Amino acid sequence: MKKYRKFLGIIILFSVLYLIAGSCMQFRQSNKKVLKSFKNAPVSPDIQTISMESEKRNLRYVKVSKSDTLPLLMFVHGAPGGADAFFDFMKDSVLVRKFRMISVDRAGYGYSDFGKSEPSILKQAQFIAQVPEFQKNKEKIILVGHSFGAPIIARMAMEYPNKIKALILVAGTMAPELEQVFWISYPADWWIFRWMVPTSMRVANDEKLQHANELRKMDSLWQTITHPTTVIQGGKDFLAPAENLDFVQKKFINAKLDTVFIPDMNHFTPWTHPELIHEAILKYE
Predict the structure, then answer these.
(1) Helix/strand/coil (H/E/C) assignment for every residue in 42-92
(2) Within a 10 A sphere around the Cβ of 49, how many other Cβ atoms?
(3) Which of 24, 116, 156, 201 is least buried, going by the fewest C-beta atoms within 10 A?
(4) Please, which pLDDT band fits residue 11 given cuts at 50, 70 and 90?
(5) Residue 16 has pLDDT above 60, yes or no
């Protein structure tokens, strides 16, 4: 009877999720909404989609630029999420004067094959590296990654060291031993419930279930990162525990490392403490 009640509770939980959250937890903006959101911004967005035929993948990104001669700054969101996670930075008048900026919809999110998961950190890094601006320009690039986006930009630094100027890791889920898989992640992956989970949450869950293993694949590569790196970490982050900062300090032995630790800060730094990211970006201009 106890197991039956628990199973019934799970059914009710996913039914509520499906009915209430399905339309408001997708973390994506159509091209039309993107253009509208930049209506009063200093510069209009350029929305592009690239096709990677060998991977049977598409990747959408949003770019703002006053000049093609400005340094390139790229943002990589967490899970779930979308390019819009960093739109406030891309509308900032100071940053617009100093940088060309790109924010991507990571594989499976936004309008980058929405719902088609890619748990591989390496492949995520390789997909983002296909953005033409990343490939064609000789100058080195500043990368900002939040949450699951942080290890992805770290992997980009491992794979494309000559293209990177600096890394900014924000509330990064970096240490495999600190990865917490919540109990709801397992039934959310059962075929009987998967269809009830909002698409973006399903993609995030697919990544979550593989994230620790993916981080372990990077274990022998951390010392190859030699780029200046800023780590921004909160003491009240229940998704990326504060001990992730200790992990980075231990692993980034060949990088010039700056750390910002805010004891009462949670996981949502881009929205609660954007000034910390802003300051870190300007430090590397």
Answers:
(1) CCCCEEEEEEEHHHCEEEEEEEECCCCCCCEEEEECCCCCCHHHHHHHHCC
(2) 12
(3) 24
(4) very low
(5) no
Least confident of 22-26, 45-49, 221-225: 22-26
Q: Which is nearest to 213 in space by CA: 76, 121, 124, 146? A: 121
Complete DSSP assignment for 21-32: ITTTS-----HH
- Cross-sheet strand order for the sheet of 257-262: 46-52, 57-64, 100-104, 72-76, 141-146, 164-170, 229-234, 257-262
Tens-digit pLDDT profile for residues 133-148: 998 767 899 999 999 9
Q: How far is CA 177 from CA 126, 180, 206, 213, 267, in A?
A: 25, 8, 18, 10, 18
* Side-chain half-sphere exposure of 12, counting CA atoms within 13 A: 6
Report d(CA 4, CA 78) in Å as an integer: 35
pLDDT above 90 (res 159): yes
Cα–Cα distance, 115 to 199 (Å, whole number) = 6
pTM, entire model:
0.90
Tell me the residue type at 198: P
Omega of the bond leading into 228 within 30 degrees of 0 (cis): no
Tell me the C-alpha distance between 179 and 245, whole Å.
Answer: 14
- Its CATH class, for the domain covering 2-283, is alpha beta
Q: CA–CA separation, 9 vs 148, rounded Å?
A: 30
